[in-house]
Amino acid sequence: MKFKxxxxxxxxxxxxxxxxxxxxxxxxxxxxxxxDYIQLGGIWVEIPEQDCEQGGNICQVADGENGPYDxxxxxxxxxPKSSVSAIPNQITLP
Length: 94
Hints:
22% of the residues lie in helices and 29% in strands. It has a domain at 35-90. The chain is an alpha+beta fold. The protein is rod-shaped. It starts with a helix and ends with a strand. The protein has one helix spanning 2-22; strands spanning 35-40, 43-48, 57-58, 60-63, 66-70, 82-83, 89-90.
């Protein structure tokens, strides 16, 4: 009987330590929405992803009377995205 009183708590303690190494990080990572970028006066501004299908025109956005601005996939891009439409998408800039 003394054997069980000594061994069972020790085994529970060892299993608890083993389980701490077996668990994974349960925090879920936030899925980032894809973004596009425009340049306003030499400053890159992040905008929501624009749905510009591949075409022969340049993908552009406008903010009311302001614009049109060329849309880029990345801040470091030198070539704007292409678009089927020649009409700029209307957005609201921050």
